[in-house]
Amino acid sequence: ELKNTSGLLYPPEAPELQIRKMADLCFLVQHYELAYSCYHTAKKDFLNDQAMLYAAGALEMAAVSAFLQPGAPRPYPAHYMETAIQTYRDICKNMVLAERCVLLSAEILKSQSKYSEAAALLIRLTSEDSDLRSALLLEQAAHCFINMKSPMVRKFAFHMILAGHRFSKAGQKKHALRCYCQAMQVYKGKGWSLAEDHINFTIGRQSFTLRQLDNAVSAFRHILINDSKQPPAQQGAFLREYLYVYKNVTQLSPDGPLPQLPLPYINSSATRVFFGHDRRPAEGEKQAATHISLDQEYDSESSQQWKELEEQVVSAINKGILPSNFQPTQFCLNRYSDNSRFPLAVIEEPITVEVSFRNPLKVPLLLTELSLLWKFQPKDFNAKHGAETKDLGMCDDDMIGTEAIAEFLINSEETKVARLKLFPHQTGELHILGVVYNLGTVQGAVTLDGFDPSIGSQTGKFVSNGLSVRGRQDLEIQGPRLNNTKEEKTSIKYGPDRRLDPIITEEMPLLEVFFINFPTGLLCGEIRKAYVEFVNVSKCPLTALKVVSKHPEFFTFGGNTAVLTPLSPSASENCSAYKTVVTDPTSMRTALLSSASSVDFGVGTGGHPEVIHVPLPDAVLLPGASVQLPMWLRGPDEEGVHEINFLFYYENIKRHSKMCHRVLRHTAVICTSRSLHIRATVCRSNALEDEEGRGDNMLVFVDVENINTSETGVKEFHIVQVSSNSKHWKLQKSVNNSEDKGVYLS
């Protein structure tokens, strides 16, 4: 006997049960039409008797029988299934049967491509009483959305996230992770940054719980490298989670290779490399040569001018022929310089690499123990049979000294450069791979000891939260695109960029130049005397010191007979081309005589007047030695501001195979103003006799005009002497009306 929902018992011979048994038998032998009729009849009887459990079962089977009928004489009665589901759930309180009915009906609807109705049916059965059942139904509904004729991708992803959430609540971590990963495939790269952050954070948490540490690190990494729109507090939480997970990963393999860190961003193409020491600052009246530094911006026009000057002096040294292996000296390499060749660096001279960091987060980042990562292959370039190669070294301070920055703070959304140095101690091939550092966060941006955040060095200390991980970032620089041949124009090919692969050569001399009492302003045509000090700060002597300029008429060096630098080089009498002498001691009359002789002015080298030889004592400047020479300057004939480039060229006494010479640059800025306009005419005089009574002399008429109209410049000139420079003629006396009073021009 069976009991209905009203508490009545059905005897085994009850007609309702007999009809139900007949329907089941017809269904088993696949006589679906007769089964449908029997189920339909039994359903009415069960409803009349208020046997709701039997009625729901009859409705369910009637709908299935109608669906399975061949030829589909009648449409699928979906309302039968909905009534059965509602009866199971609300009246009979049997969720297992309701769930079975929903899954069966959903499969029938999906087979008829009614995915929208199937998804709605699955979603309606979700509830708060069973997380696992709701997760299964939401996942099936999500697959309905993606299988539509016009797939509803975002609804699929949204319901997969809901399913993952319910799986997580039910303790099914693997299923939860699978659902979130499938949803991530939809949201990734669509600009929904907040949704991506939530999904990645959840994936990271679930992966860490399942001990899938690599997946956890990857998920948290994506949160940090995306342009996040999260508030600072949330970004700080994400960063701490990442550091915590990352630290657990590194503890599993402490001796493994350093992993790649996602923060801060590095603009590899903006990396600059500088070869050489920082120049000594000026001392007192000494003005150091400007040369080149990382603080100067790159100027392509200026760079081309320096290249032409170097080619000019090298050609003059080699009798007018530029060597085929000539490589212009490059002190600073950047994205605009020619980086197709391996740069040359000198042993025991620092290599400075400027790296540009950017913090994309709204919280500060603290980098500690920041240094360069490199590998080095020692070679002896002086070996008889080519270069002698030794074992490959990596990060060995005996071969390459590495300077580390103890603390480097990058504020929120800040771009900041760090200058890192290497000190090569052996010759060979150096390859700079990247940077290595500890990544951490700070509790606040409070600094001590006067730290200046704009400077790459560190003198302050920051309060860290104690959570940091050590890793690396590689410097990967893409070379310029090739566009010369037809093949290169029709394809995308890039040339090499070797700015981070210098060759360390043998020791070379190093010259420093100081200018003493060098003027910043001159009158047009004015002759002024200055002094130049040459200092050899290296451990090997230098020779063949020359200077080349596009304006050789501006300057010349004093000869070997020139007087050494006076005690007070800035005194006016030491800067002028003339000196005051007493002509008559009784009357204390004075006169101005030239303090420079013709031997004080240098001569160009051969057919290259722009290349001037610097007269060093014995033509050699020993290590640690210095020499001061007078330099005569003549103001340019045109008024205005003039930039005059000096390129100092010098060589090592011992010739090297890699580096033959070195150069030093200096740019002088001279402001000239108009002074006098002079017209001289000469006519023969038969009446004028010289001191010895000989005739055949000349009369020289000099017309002088003051053309200086500037109110701020010199307003009055006093003509006190006219002198000449000739091997055959000399001026005997001056004839003018004012006698000793001189000539004044206003």
Automatic annotation (TrEMBL):
Residue ranges of every copy of the TPPC8 first Ig-like domain listed in the record? 295-523
Q: Which Gene Ontology terms of cellular component type are present?
A: TRAPPIII protein complex
Q: Which residues form the TPPC8 second Ig-like domain?
A: 524-664
Q: Which residues cross the membrane?
A: none
Q: Which InterPro entries does the entry link to?
A: Ig_TPPC8_1st (IPR058541), Ig_TPPC8_2nd (IPR058538), Ig_TPPC8_3rd (IPR058540), TPR-like_helical_dom_sf (IPR011990), TRAPP_III_complex_Trs85 (IPR024420)
- One Pfam family assigned to this protein is TRAPPC-Trs85
Give every TPPC8 third Ig-like domain span.
667-735
Taxonomically, the superkingdom here is Eukaryota
> What name does UniProt use for this protein?
Trafficking protein particle complex subunit 8
